[in-house]
Structures are given as structure tokens and as C-alpha cells.
Amino acid sequence: MISIDLIQSTAEVLMDKAAIEIPDDYLTGLKDAASTEDGDLSSFVLQAMLDNYKAAKEDRRAMCGDTGCPRWYVKMGNDATVEGGPVALESALRQATANATNGVPLRPNRVHPLWRTDHDNNVGIGAPEIEYGFEPAVAGEDKADWIDLITVHKGGLFGTDYRMLFPSDGIEGIKRFYLDSLVAFGKRGLACQPAIIGIGLGGSKDTCMVLGKRAACLRTVGNMNSDPRIAELEAEFKELGNSIGMGAMGFVGKNMVIDCNIEVGYCHTGGMQMSVHAFCLSSRRAVARLYADGRVEYRTDPDWFTPYQRRETVLWEPMLEAAE
Ligand code: SF4
């Protein structure tokens, strides 16, 4: 059984790491962008951000004054049990969020939508969001008696959009909405670029938004979709996003997209839902795997999209003989 004290103390470390240490994959992507950028202001911003990340780590201070919205993804191995159960787990994550907001410190962004009530700790009604996934034991693993805690401090909140497309819009329609969104994000300052862009395709309206946000926040730079045709689109969309003449912070340049990740879900035959999400210049995420024997392993790759999470295997096949 995984101890609840271990969960809370690890969650506090994760909040600290996410706020201060930019993940290596994003940093490498940013350095690549800086090495190819020739727009004056875009180059200046990229270099300033690289200096900023270095200083944040050395001084143990948050890399951006805007915390974004801290959220949690919890992936439970199929054999994991938690002391006190899921309710205790949620309570520990809420407490860790409040403690870290005051400890790191982080800007308390969360307020009531109508009364603007602010508890100064990023905790409130429905905040922070906590989402769950489950995972079977993999080959070579006796049992999956671990949980992964993933925190994301999601900035670029206004750099998000949704459109109901139709099958006849095709790939060209997807590209049009993608480019419309990037131009709007850049021109109106809706998210600090360059960003990791996540695209959700299909599902229903709510799951399409979830897929797109997870595509932006839970995949690393350079990671490709397991479907080679979608992976091809991801590469094409990255190039497309970097060819509209905008770079860092919407200035003239050619590095607006550090990576483009696409996730899909089966949808109604009449529609083709699409969402676009920007995981901003401060792409903050931190991950830990906790085991029942007390071990904790930290990493920055959420490794969320396993074959099981994508439900790639269709377990039921039509009775072909009966249909004949
Ligand atoms: S969009 Fe990201 S980098 Fe820009 S202010 Fe918000 S959290 Fe900071």
C-alpha cells in the first residue's frame, strides 16, 4: 500500500520542480529554435528565456511570475492501493498544491468565476483539476503496484480553441483551423510562444478538449504518435506552424511551434471535432512514480499515451461469418 504521507510530500516536491525546472526535452527544443531564429525580436526573446530558465534553476525561483493553473494527472497501476483510498489521495494533492503555492512561492491564480474569491493557495471549487488513468502491468512486471503523479502548471490558458468540423472539411479544413488559431494566439497575445501545440481530433466536444490538452501537456518534444500517418501530420503541422512568419511572443520570426502533438478519438460519423491548445513558453510538468515499498522515481516524461491509454486494441471483432 502506498503511504499517504509519501504522496503528499512527493506532490510538494513535484510542484516545486514543475515551477522551477524546465523539462529537458522542451529546453532542447527551445535551444534548437534559438539556433535557427533570424527575427531580431524573436531571437532576443528566445535568448532571454534561456537565460531566465538558467537563473530560475540556480536561484530556486519560479521560471514565470504567472503560475498558470496547476493541475494533476494521476495514473494508477492496476494493482496499486493507496492508504486512505482515492479520497485521501485527492485531499493530499489539494493540500500539496496549497502548501507549494505558499512555499515555492507561486502566484495564487485561482478565483471564483463570479465573486473572484481567492484563498491565496490555488485551491478552490474544482481546483486543482485531478484527472485519472489506469494501467495494466506490462510484460516483465509482476504487478503494477505503483502510481504516477504528474503535475502540470498549465499556462497559455487563453491559447485554446474548439471548432466542430465536418468530415468533408478534410485535412485542409483541419489545417485552416490550426493556422487560424495560431495566428489569433500570436496576434492577440493569448499564449506566450513558442509553444507545444496539442491538437485533439474526434471524440465528443468535451473529450476532444481533453485529448488536445493532454496532447499538449503529456507528451514530450520529439515524441510522435504511434500511428505513422498521424505522426506524418504532426511533422507537417510543426513545419506549417513555423512558416506563418511569427516567432517568439508573436514577433516576426520562424519559431512559433516547438512541437505539434495530435491525439484522436473515435467520433460520431457526422462530425470531426477539433481542439487546439498551446502549452506555453513555460511548459511546466514534473512526474514521479511511487511504489508500495516507498521508492520514488522522478522524471519529466509523463509517458501517458501508452497503447492502453489510447485503447489501440479493439477487443471485439464483428461476427463476420454471421454477417455473410
Ligand atoms: S503564457 Fe506561460 S510563459 Fe506566458 S505568462 Fe502565462 S504562464 Fe508565463
Describe this structure in words.
By secondary structure, the protein is an alpha+beta fold. Helix 4 (85-103) links the parallel strand 1 (69-77) and strand 2. It has eight helices and nine strands. The longest helix has 20 residues, at 40-59. The mean pLDDT is 95. Helix 2 (24-36) runs antiparallel to helix 3 (40-59). It has helices spanning 4-20, 24-36, 40-59, 85-103, 170-187, 205-217, 228-241, 320-323, and strands spanning 69-77, 130-135, 146-154, 160-165, 195-202, 257-265, 272-279, 284-291, 296-299. It has a domain at 156-282. The strands form two sheets. It has a five-stranded mixed beta sheet with strand order 2-1-3-8-9, with helices on one face. It has a four-stranded mixed beta sheet with strand order 4-7-5-6. It is globular. It is 36% helix and 21% strand. The termini are far apart. Bound molecules: iron/sulfur cluster. The site of iron/sulfur cluster has 10 residues, from loops.
Short overview:
This protein has 324 residues and is α+β, with helices and mostly antiparallel strands.
Query: What coarse outline follows from CA principal-axis ratios?
Result: globular
- Amino-to-carboxy terminus distance: 52 Å
Count up the helices.
8
Overall strand count: 9
